[in-house]
Amino acid sequence: MIRVLDTRWLGREGVIAVFAVPHEEGVALVETGPESAFGEVVAGLKAFGYTLADVTDVFLTHIHLDHAGAAWRFAEAGARVHVHPRGAPHLANPEKLVQSARRIYGEQMKTLWGELRPVPKERLSVAEDGARVAVGGRVFTAHATPGHAVHHHVWVLEDAVFTGDVAGVRLGGGPVLPPCPPPDIQLEHWRASIEKLRALPAQTLYLTHFGAYRDKGAMLDALDARLSDWGAWVRARLREGLSPEAMVPLFEAKVRAELTAAGLDEEGVARYEAANPSAYSVYGLVRYWQKHHPEAL
Questions:
Q1: How big is the chain by its Cα radius of gyration, in Å?
Q2: Is it the case that residue 99 has pLDDT exceeding 90?
Q3: What is the pLDDT of residues 63-80, one digit of tens each?
């Protein structure tokens, strides 16, 4: 059985999940959440009868801090950390990650994400596309799925697909939204990854933001459509000559209207904004058009 651990990040429930997978030798985690929520994850493990010492392996979908920020904590406690080859160097030496995050979050860095330290190299396991990792009688398979990040995998275990961010953000059964932060958003690659997800036999999607969903086809259709809509909206504003800063409040209003139309109340809208800040998607999509398709502008 797969257990969903709620990190209760910043006191909000149902925003960032960590998945615990029991096996013959202990328990494996998919994702770690941010280091600022490490204590909540350990408490969640305890509620299911496990201790920190029982964690043998950590499977990361990618190295963004909401997914992998506490990886070093579990590695120092003895876990192996399995990660995309383009993510591994940044876990071994997180200096660039820290610098990049500080530019964005400034004084809020520690409050939001906690502390970031290197993962000992002997605890890092680089997983190429298609890698099969056997852990205590269970086998996890890595599938490279770029688009949201160049260092993104989904991990498949039997009927479960741990999707990271490539299958979008969906909270409490609400609509599915694509997280599009800079610097790696690439729409063609993301659409190819969506098709890769469709082709996988596994049908249950485990979203880091947040939980398990079994309407795989409908979710991927909705994600693909919204990804196209958001990309086209940003392109149109660029053609009109708007700056990213001018776009942000307009895009925030657009996303709020979409969520409200889906029946979400103010708290529901706030949870989505915490999980997937609208401003980041503006900056990520602006960068995509300017870098990959300047001719379209």
A1: 18
A2: no
A3: 999 999 999 999 999 999
Residue 72's nearest CA partner among 87, 53, 92, 46 is: 92
Q: In what order do the strands lie in the sheet with 55-59?
A: 3-6, 17-23, 26-30, 55-59, 80-83, 124-126
The total domain count for the chain is 1
CA 153, 132, 46 angle in degrees (round to 5)?
75
pLDDT in tens, 126-165: 999 999 999 999 999 999 999 999 999 999 999 999 999 9
* Residue 102 within a domain: yes
Task: Name the amino acid, one letter, at 29.
Answer: L
Q: What is the pLDDT of residue 24?
A: 96
CATH number at residue 84: 3.60.15.10
| Structural domain includes residue 288 | no
Containing 22, the helix (H) or strand (E) segment is strand 17-23
| 62 within 8 A of 107, measured Cβ to Cβ | no
Contact call for residues 15 and 24 (beta carbons, < 8 A) = no
Identify the three-state secondary structure at position 125: strand
Q: Which residue has the tokens 């493990």?
A: 45
